[in-house]
């Protein structure tokens, strides 16, 4: 799925309307022309047209032939008047279509047998009677096939012949039987194991190319690390090399300048797997060759339950969804995928075996690495296949690395056949030109390994890598400083490292295909479209810049083992047993890399709900949902027991039906170096580990003691020991087992473990908040003593009534006061003045202003000297307070 | 200071400034267009330079509000040689006894803002004595550290604060409105001779 099928973009999707119409018409014409050629047996289906939906027995092709022979019409694309022939339909299809004319294929066969068209209503797939469709004989086939494939049981012969007999289609039975006998042979000779088999893991890793490649890559990274640690960085071989180059006597005086004054070499073997394989098969040189597991061109018998159309549809759907998510509209981009050209399984082109590597002769025909065998055979029917030769790869890769390492150790290992070398120092020491160096080096590698390689030189790793691409096959290329600008313009964005399908499709939607086009974009707009990091990276990359320098010392970040081929469990125990083996594998790898890890992740691939039960690729994982769960340990470990225990508890918590599992993986991250760890390891932890060992021994002895009665007395002393020790010993383990509950990805709802922490933080926050107003109050007091005094007054005078009242009520009181006709009391006047003063202190001058205006208007209306005096007094008080608070007088009109 | 308060306050100040410009007839009526805000008709200048000045002032105000260092904003109506004739004061003080649940949806605050805008319409007699070629200025009262911080802020570089020494003293206060938005009290009044 990762690589695009570049050479076949034109798959008809882009011109859906016109093309499809033409196709349908053509197909119907073909059908009717066939009609005349074939000798028609009967005319019973005259006027009947069918459309086959999904997988049926007999298959669509057979039905087509039957219809042809009996006067019916077969439509490749559905018409409204068609009978839909189907054996089973997925839910989504059922929802979409009317079920009135969906008929089981038996209708056709029985009709032919009866030599008349039977009532199709008896064969409706989904009748209203709600009776189960009769699947009895189909079921039989499914069962037997499952058993043969899943267990590779010994009595295959009987079962398979019985299925052959069971197949109801008599017309086709001859060829079928041939097919099945074929299959028998194959099964006999090459029984494929499922994960249930105890030797599965070792078998799997022996055959998995991805495993070998990654193992080799990791191995060489470690190898370089080790070499650098041990080396004194004196390279005697440099002298020989220098002499050899000088002896060549074609001293090119032309010196090359690279950017940044650095010379980075990228060296890559040419179609590594093929050229290594060709050492054993010299007769295949010059022919299109591919390295794959598949035998090539041998068609497999169709397994029941496989529905490639559905599965490929799901892959495409997923691809679409991703694109939509990325904001690319589908109409603009054509969707191509690896599964486009794969036929059905019983087809010659149905192989879903991946091509790991193919020769340049094969590449010329349009075959690419990672292509499925089926699609490749379609392109190049005479494609030769050679098997994997893992020992050979190891040998050649070792030779390659050793050749380079004798001259310099400034090597960054990328994979078994690819590395970056910083030649700046080396070339300075040698005093030779880059060109001669490259020629000699490549010659030496070719001599030693028998395989061609290509080298690219540049000022940084990106340039070197792009140069190698240019150099291939079997060449060398020097991307010097003066070439870069021109060179980058024509580089396709897809060829940049780190630009995958997602990014390139996004960029294509924006109308950018080459680096030159991308150079016109600003950093900001790139970042806006692709995110900060990718945007900045691309901005640099399309100009030939690369900020990452070579890393000679690689640090491993994770250790994992993952199997997603052949996972077909029946029971939980099988699953647990497999996890145990996988844990063992992880454990041994961790030992190999001398690391301890703190974080354990269980990765499960589970069959997606709408994916077919049987996968398109035999024992492959098909279309899956992935589930990841991890747990953190308090202490880093590489112990098998701990890993297995954690993984088991994670797996149990997930509660996934073992039958639905399609892949398992265990990954350990947060690694610490074991050497480092031992240095810091305290006496206590050593003590604890010792106890663990004692304890486990104890268990064993105790188990035996149950069987053998005699040594019981001797056992008692250690027994008490163990009781004393066990609480201490247990405590760290309990801690580590509990931690997953707390730290698992999503905190469980209403989990009590989370609450206390939460409450604590709230408390702290509250305390903090409560603290702040307090200090503010202090500040206020210092700043403004009047206010404080006022507040105190306010509290003491509250009993007087007036001060606590809202201003509207005070206005009513004033109104009553004015209307009472009494002479105003001095204490009342003071009270009113105090109320207004307090409003000023509280800065409520807008309402105070209303009150004052009311006060003045009423007194003016009364036109009474005493009240005038009251007003003058009150206003004086108010203005004094205003001066105190605002330093300004209240505006009372132009008096 | 929470963003809700800052946004609400800035919006209110903007509307207040534009409306004062309109009611105090600082610019000809023709540069104003009507808008609907707080369910009433408000006026808004569409003169780009005037608007730019107001917006940049508001940006500075926002920055001060974020730092919590804004004590007062003054909108001063000046003569042509920038002598302050009267000013609209917007005092901000923190209300320590604020109850979070009170006016949670700012309904009362909105009504108060509307009341302020309507109050402006009643002030026409205060503007009669102003000279023909009047202008305006906006003052921010903040502390020195905030001023220094803002001077260092590259975003506000193009529009620095200018410190004024002369503070015109006025004799009279005309209260306009006082209300609270969240935990701050906004106190509006006019000052003039």
TrEMBL record, chain A:
Residues 740-749 have a biased composition (Basic residues). InterPro entries: BRCT_dom (IPR001357), BRCT_dom_sf (IPR036420), DNA/RNA_pol_sf (IPR043502), DNA_pol_Y-fam_lit_finger_sf (IPR036775), DNA_pol_Y-fam_little_finger (IPR017961), IMS_HHH_1 (IPR053848), Rev1_C (IPR031991), Rev1_C_sf (IPR038401). It is found in: Nucleus. Pfam families: BRCT_2, IMS, IMS_C, IMS_HHH_1, REV1_C. One of its GO terms (cellular component) is nucleus. GO terms for biological process: DNA repair; error-free translesion synthesis; error-prone translesion synthesis. It comes from the Eukaryota. Residues 40-125 form the BRCT domain. Residues 264-500 form the UmuC domain. The keyword Heme does not apply. GO terms for molecular function: damaged DNA binding; deoxycytidyl transferase activity; DNA-directed DNA polymerase activity; metal ion binding. Its cofactor is Mg(2+). Mg(2+) binds at residues 268, 417-418. Residues 720-757 are annotated as: Disordered. Keywords: DNA damage, DNA repair, DNA synthesis, DNA-binding, Magnesium, Metal-binding, Nucleotidyltransferase, Nucleus, Transferase. Binds 2 magnesium ions. PANTHER family: DNA REPAIR PROTEIN REV1. Belongs to the DNA polymerase type-Y family. This is DNA repair protein REV1.
UniProtKB/TrEMBL annotation, chain B:
It comes from the Eukaryota. Residues 3-190 form the HORMA domain. One of its GO terms (cellular component) is zeta DNA polymerase complex. Pfam families: HORMA. Gene3D superfamilies: HORMA domain (3.30.900.10). SUPFAM superfamilies: The spindle assembly checkpoint protein mad2. This is HORMA domain-containing protein.
